[in-house]
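Form 7-S
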Amino acid sequence: MSIPEQRNKKSEDLESLPQGKGFEQLFKAFYSRLCYFSFQFVKDKVNAEDIVQEAFFKYWNHREELSLNCTEAAVKNFLYSTVRNASLNRIRHDKVVSNYLELQDPAPIEEFNIIHSIIRSEVLAELHMALDTLPESCQRISKMGYLAGMKNSEIAEKLGISVNTVKTQKKRGLQLLRLILKPEVYTIFITFLAESQTN
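Output:
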């Protein structure tokens, strides 16, 4: 999920806050991946963006308390936990509003699925950065194939090239990504890729 070209009033307010300990860098580093993480729950881009922006406001309001343990891992854990809880609350609220209400609470989402979503968000963020370093043609085809999920024939038709050229560029892209990405990130990416092809 990409950062929208024009952010709404909330994100403008976020950027106008005093920067303190690299708040702007923190926002830029985690906004996109947290939006994707939330989107996996709420299935709505605008709601996901609202939830993430609220999470950054909450972080800002608690920054003095958090500064006592201000490691990257602690901040990341705070943001992901806040977005997760807000996303689950939004799901419950939406089910009530849409007359999907039942006597029992909505089925809980297993912790494994939440961890899986965090990992996927982090891997996709690393993948986007790695893809941006590839040669232009290889980059475009790899993004269409691996991120957009387009078939080789669809890519070939859209770009006006042969299917064999698409296959060659995708193979080259994988070889380059294997060199660029950390081994564990590349392995997870390949696993996700295999899952998407079997679904």
